[in-house]
Amino acid sequence: MRRKQLRIALFALPALVGSVLMATTPAGADPAGSTARAGSERSHLEDQDPVRLVRIQLAGADMLDKVVAAGFDLEHGLRRVPTGIEGEAVVTAEQIAELEALGVEILDDGQGFAWSDDADGGLPAFRAQAVQPLSHEQTVRIVRADWFTTKGQGFLYVEARTTAGQQTNPIVAMQLENDSGPGTSFGSARTMSRFVDSGQYMFHRNLFKLDARPSQIRVTSSTGGVATGFVSNWLEDGAPPLTANPGYKWDFIDGYKTPQQLYRRAEEIARQYPKIAEIIYLPYQTNGYQRKAQATVGGTGQAAVVASSAAWGHEGGNDITVEFVNRPGANLPLAVEVNGKAIRVLLAKDASGGLASTAAQVANALKTQSGGLIDRAHPYRTNAGTGIVQPTPVPVALTDFLDEKRVGAPEGEVPRGPATIPVLRIGKHRDGKKPGVLIQAQDHAREWVPATTSLEAAERLVHNYDSDKETKKIVDNTDVFLILSNNPDGANYSFYNFASQRRNMTNHCPDADADPARRNSWGVDLNRNYRVGSGHDGYSGGSTNCVSDTYQGPEKLSEPESKNIIWLVEKYSNIKFMMSVHSNGGQLFWQPGAYIADGRITTPRPPLGDEAFYWQSAARILSQVKAHRQTVVTPENVGGSSDVLYSSAGNVREDLYHNYGIYAFGWEVGGSVYNPATGNWQGGSFQPAWVGNPDLVSGHAETMEYANGIMEMFRIAADWGKDNKKPTSSLAPGAGTYAGSVDVRFETSEPATIYYTTDGSRPTLESPRYQATEFREPGQVFHVTETTTFRWFSVDAAGNIEQNYDPTKNDTRNNYREATITVVQQ
């Protein structure tokens, strides 16, 4: 299956010149930086290599691990195909060669992918399990069989496992057959693709077009196993979106927004609607949209010197000039003259009158004799600086390579200093008694749609509070916290300097990577900077390379942007839900988010009850997305993020779930949209054209449909906060007498965690938890061969305990559930 290369279109921003993702400088800007003054000759060593988006194919998950570990910037829309994994990477020409050296195939530009009858990649969902006989001895299990429609076309996604899946020689083959509806026979055998991730067998899967909805499927393994199951509907029965309510106000966003525009509007909302909104200012200021001024001067290679100002560029660093001077004479020492902000390095001469200053010597002189103007000076990259420095034809101006007067900037100059991030808080009762929902957008700077999506959701809340009863329920029963841009420095850099910027702007690099040509490669990936499953602890997906786009930072929580999130959830302990909104790829996921590659050891998976609650919530959220224009986030793109996407060490979701018990979702908005005219799927992009074909990819359409999903996230939290209904559970089959042995499992009335014992003791919160058979599968099956008494209780996602049982007290009621399975030996 071929997927279309992402097309990055011109963005529309009011009063802002258009840019494209591949651009390395803003429209009309001098590639060396517009702060370079006339007569200032720049070194070609400062030139940035342009980046572009290329479509790649990897042989499998092991290669994906190596590419991610090497710090390559992979677009999120990875797709499993029978021959490996296809995706896109944002790379330079040099990096293309590095990818090829790793064995990655660079594919030619495609115009879309077509669904084939062969296996396609895919990962599972959980909401509606295929029905199978209850047996612990199954060698083949059907995990999912999901039917969905979009734009008049039907699709079937199937996932199945075999107990022989880890066998590699020979590789176990599995085939899928489906009927054409009730009463029809099986047919149309298709080979399913075997998916192995980081050396571990995951499952077999298939995704393909069908003209009619099947009723059942049959999966057969080459080792002899066979299983049948019923087909379930995926996103076919969602409730109407709030936008369908009479008089409902929506569609407030008219284009992409800079951080300044986002923050200003958040503050306006708080002023306009003081009864339901306020601003919280986060305590840790960002590093700022600012840089030290720099220049690379004096020659090439071993003879080049990199100089950096002590002051920020806008605070005087951009006024500094450096000139390397060849004086007449012989036996002259190296010296430095400073006149205001003009630095003249008088190069040394040997006995014959030849130049004699090496780059290392000049760098040391600049650091020690520049009157404090130069803070950092060193030879270029990893060179020792043994080359003889050449004089400069004219003084070279240091520059921070940031546009001082950006053409069309909405507010004139973007503030250069540290930024304070505001949180827009919306709720009628902001006293900590209502369940809090944190929406965090734009951790990654180039992802512009998440910010507009989040702002659209905020606008819908405040504009419809007085007129729409469903919106009033949300605002009255939740406490919403919106961070519209969690990375303002990087986002400004993306808008005005380098559209592909992913990270913040904090430069942690040593001298080898601190020269100006690396300026688009500095910064920390904020979603690799947290404490659980961190790259610092050996988990995959976070880089130690300071110029990698997945650089995790020098230590956990090194960045103010990540510290702010922890401060917020610790101060407002009523926050029980969180959605980190990213783009693009069309995934919705949660824990586990990372694994140690050797053995694929994931961070702890959520208990079965939490996992089921995540799937239930996902179905609600994604049904609302589909209701706008039939965009379907497919089952393969839902689940634990390390299973759906790749291992992302140190992500925010893991920290909030494992340390604070917050249901933390990650959302990659802007997935593929089916085009019925071509039969292909059009991929999204980080900055799609704001206005385009309303049925295909556009920033406006994505903003509206994914805002539907965020609104449903609020409704889920409101329902959770009002939930006082106790769950019920049972053992299936129930208590009774059975001959020989029997297979049993637990069933619950809603997503709930079951704690149980089989040794006659009273169940407590320390008792074993009922677990899944395998990840993203139903609960385990107990093969009971002797008389056994099960005692248990269930706890739902809202904390309600079955039958009001108190597992912390040893009272005389003992109102836990109990069932005895009596086995009569024959």
From TrEMBL:
Gene3D superfamilies: Zn peptidases (3.40.630.10). The keyword Zinc applies. Residues 1-29 form the signal peptide. InterPro entries: GH29D-like_dom, Peptidase_M14. It comes from the Bacteria. One of its GO terms (molecular function) is zinc ion binding. GO terms for biological process: proteolysis. Transmembrane segments: none annotated. Keywords: Hydrolase, Metalloprotease, Protease, Signal, Zinc. Its cofactor is Zn(2+). The active site is at residue 668. SMART domains: Zn_pept (SM00631). Residues 378-710 form the Peptidase M14 domain. Belongs to the peptidase M14 family. This is Chitobiase/beta-hexosaminidase C-terminal domain-containing protein.
